[in-house]
Design brief:
The complex is a heterodimer. Chain A contains seven helices and 18 strands. By secondary structure, chain A is α/β, with parallel strands linked by helices. The two termini of chain B are 23 Å apart. By secondary structure, chain B is of the alpha/beta class. The chains are: A alpha/beta, B alpha/beta.
Chain lengths: 372, 401
């Protein structure tokens, strides 16, 4: 096959590209330029859009021996990922831009362009497995549970999966690093990226305050306990997340002395409610905008059905029922959690699994508290 | 991707292969010792090579040997001319902080100008160009008339590197003369391609570089009239009449001089031969892609007299087609060209030259430059003409994103 290797400048995508070459594919490396003004000398290697990262990707392509280009996806990325991120936070939700990027950029804009240019697939360094199943291809968790990235790929449809290669799905990360070193790739010991790539210093709230000067959620307001008493003040709800504990600077201690967490945020009234961790417990999720990796199920309640609610989060046993509508994205999905979950915010993605297989994903619209 | 058996190199404006005469001249000195500033026999021998090279270049380009300042290349020569002249002019008369230039200059001119504006308080005005990429002389005239006592410098390139349009330098020099403002020109693309005579041109400073004329990388020169005061950028041993310190790169300068001498000697034959190839390329590409648009000045007369475009330059917009995609598809077939965009920062930007020429961002992004040079053949052109149609079709199906 002729494949495009999306190379971030990190070790995983470099090894993935090398393996694609070794598997006999005709590989062309690309690096996505996602910002018009890349932070050139950002310390460390935390993001995926610095000049240094582009150079690391280029050097990896040199070593692997494949052509290499930079694709400018900055406009698309800004429209589809960054603006969405800002709008979601402004509305008091907690988006996951990495899923959004996979859905709209890496496996949409990039894949479309690749197919248009005569390529057959896109290869990335994600830790996940695509394999043939009874009804087409299936997406499964990686064998290295600690690195499994099937969660951020849960938005991919059958058509996108058919044109995706994830050569690292069966390999534990340490072996990938060893292999990179053996192949002479200089990124072998480059640190993993963790933060949101366009928020340079990892300070989401600060970034949002800077980018959204006029947004709702910038007005200081009260922090109330569940009885309605003011226990502190906040500088604006922007960047606060349900389940958050740190940085609240509550002036009035809790009666029981236990830590308190953000339970609710209303960006319009500017009110934030805090309470004990057990009041964060959620046993039911209403999901919208489902994306199914294969056919849309009606009900899933087998023993192996679980949902994952954040990247590298734990699995929760669940029963899922779908209220179908046309188009499919208009369907709603109810998820009963057999193991309660804590700190679940609207806007986050719930990815539904059957065993190791990804069934699909939904955006969390609302949750039901156990205590409610 | 499977590599094509042969590389079709259509990017001579980026860099062109060294000519054998330059390789010979350069290699003849690589194994010889001698710092050109040393007083002993080896030093004198090295110095002699440098001075002979200086005389060769002066002879070829119509200046005095003492007006040749060797630099590390075009970028340094541009920086020296702009910053050096600006600082000197302002030191003499604090009011002179205004620099007039064009919006289509190379980054080696634009970026120093932006720096001078930001850091040194220069007032930089980038004058508009017409749709062919030619400076509007009327705008220059009125710009010069405003605040005439503040004018420090004019910098207008001899020929544009992206679309090949020659600039009305005679008129620029005549106007500048009326106001007593020195003129710098970046002639990196012009030397060897069109007639260039420093004295006859009337400019005060002229940039050229080795690797665009068949010489080595990393060496160039600023031709600067003795009367033009230049503040040095590099301070040290006082080489190059104290304007450009640094140990002199004897072999590179020997290769550079050999290349300039040959390029200038062969300029007229080169222009005729390469101009004819370029015309063949333009005709062939327009036949293969009828809605492609040739950017830049007319290709009508490139015989050396009254030419208004570089003979080796062809620059097209391919509507509904991403230039990057097209470049990649051609590259996969061994055909090498340029989008003309500055992507050194990792992010390809739409060409500032095309934007200055009034094109939309989409038009700018749909553009490619093919530039021919001394090694180009009819077979190169035929290979491109055969490939361009299917590649454009393919790139169009990949969309403009």
């Amino acid at each position: 096959m002729r494949v495009i290797a999306a190379m971030s400048g990190g070790v995983d995508s470099a090894v993935a590209a090398a393996r694609a070459v070794e598997a006999g594919h005709d590989v062309t490396g690309i690096h996505l330029a996602l910002s018009r003004n890349p932070a050139s000398y950002r310390s460390g290697a935390r993001g995926c859009c610095t000049v240094e990262d582009a150079n690391d990707a280029r050097r990896a392509a040199d070593v692997i021996g494949i052509p290499f280009y930079v694709w400018d996806m900055s406009d698309r990325f800004h429209e589809d990922v960054v603006e969405d991120f800002m709008a979601e936070y402004a509305a008091g939700r907690t988006p996951n831009p990495c899923l959004r990027c996979n859905e709209r950029i890496k496996f949409a804009a990039v894949l479309d362009r690749a197919l248009g240019l005569g390529f057959d697939a896109v290869v990335t360094g994600h830790y996940a497995v695509v394999r043939d199943g009874a009804d087409g291809v299936e997406l499964h968790r990686a064998s290295d549970a600690a690195k499994d990235q099937s969660y951020v790929l849960g938005v991919l449809t059958q058509d996108q999966l058919r044109h995706s290669l994830f050569p690292l799905g069966d390999t534990p990360k340490p072996l990938v690093r060893q292999e990179a070193a053996r192949r002479g790739l200089l990124v072998a010991d480059k640190p993993d990226s963790h933060d949101i790539c366009f928020v340079a210093d990892g300070d989401n709230a600060g970034w949002l305050r800077e980018k959204l000067p006029d947004a709702v959620g910038r007005t200081p307001g009260p922090i109330l306990d569940e009885a309605g008493a003011e226990v502190g003040r906040h500088e604006g709800t922007l960047g606060l997340t349900i389940g958050q504990r740190r940085g609240l600077r509550l002036g009035v201690p809790a009666a029981d002395g236990k830590p308190r967490f953000v339970l609710d945020i209303s960006p319009v009234s500017g009110t934030v409610t805090v309470g004990p961790r057990e009041h964060l417990a959620v046993d039911r999720i209403e999901g919208i905008k489902p994306r199914w990796c294969g056919g849309a199920p009606a009900r899933l309640d087998g023993a192996g059905v679980t949902v994952q609610l954040r990247a590298h989060g734990e699995e929760h046993r669940a029963a899922v029922s779908v209220t179908r509508a046309e188009p499919v994205e208009a369907s709603t999905v109810a998820i009963e959690l057999l193991d309660p979950a804590f700190g679940i915010a609207p806007g986050q993605a719930a990815v539904i699994y059957d065993g190791t297989r990804v069934v699909g994903s939904v955006t969390i619209a609302s949750t039901r508290r156990v205590s409610a | 991707m499977t590599r094509a058996p042969r590389t079709v190199y259509l990017d001579h404006a980026a860099t062109t292969p060294m000519v054998p005469a330059a390789v010979e001249a350069m290699s003849a000195h690589l194994l010889e010792v001698g710092n050109a500033s040393s007083l002993h026999a080896s030093g004198r021998r090295a110095r002699r090579v440098v001075e002979e090279s200086r005389e060769t270049i002066a002879q070829a380009l119509g200046c005095r040997p003492g007006e040749v300042v060797f630099t590390s290349g075009g970028t340094e020569a541009d920086n020296l001319a702009l910053k050096g002249a600006f600082w000197s002019r302002r030191a003499r008369d604090a009011r002179r902080v205004r620099i007039l230039s064009t919006g289509i200059e190379h980054h080696a001119v634009l970026d120093p100008l932006h720096w001078l504006a930001e850091v040194e308080g220069a007032q930089v005005e980038l004058l508009p160009v017409d749709r062919d990429g030619r400076l509007s002389v009327d705008t220059l005239r009125s710009a010069l008339a405003q605040a005439a006592e503040e004018n420090a410098l004019i910098s207008v390139m001899w020929a544009n590197n992206e679309v090949g349009t020659l600039q009305p330098l005679d008129e620029v020099v005549a106007l500048a003369g009326e106001y007593g403002v020195p003129v710098h020109t970046d002639a990196v693309q012009a030397v060897g391609a069109v007639p260039v005579d420093f004295a006859a041109s009337g400019v005060d400073a002229l940039t050229l570089t080795g690797h665009k004329v068949g010489g080595p990388y990393g060496v160039g020169a600023l031709l600067a009239r003795r009367e033009l005061d230049l503040t040095a950028l590099l301070h040290g041993g006082g080489q190059e009449r104290d304007v450009r310190s640094g140990t002199i790169d004897v072999p590179a300068i020997a290769g550079f001089a050999a290349a300039v001498e040959l390029a200038v000697k062969e300029q007229s034959g080169y222009a005729a031969r390469v101009g004819a190839l370029r015309d063949q390329l333009v005709t062939g590409v327009l036949a293969a892609v009828p809605d492609a648009v040739l950017n830049g000045a007319s290709t009508g007369s490139t015989d050396g007299g009254g030419a208004d475009r570089l003979p080796g330059n062809a620059h097209f917009s391919f509507p509904d087609c991403e230039g990057d995609s097209l470049l990649m598809l051609l590259d996969a077939q061994g055909i090498e060209c340029s989008t003309g965009s500055a992507c050194s920062a990792g992010v390809p930007q739409p060409s500032h030259v095309l934007l200055a020429m009034g094109r939309s961002e989409a038009e700018a992004r749909s553009s490619l430059r093919f530039s021919l040079g001394h090694t180009s053949t009819s077979a190169d052109v035929e290979a491109l003409v055969a490939a361009i149609g299917p590649c454009v079709e393919r790139a169009r199906s990949a969309g403009m994103r």
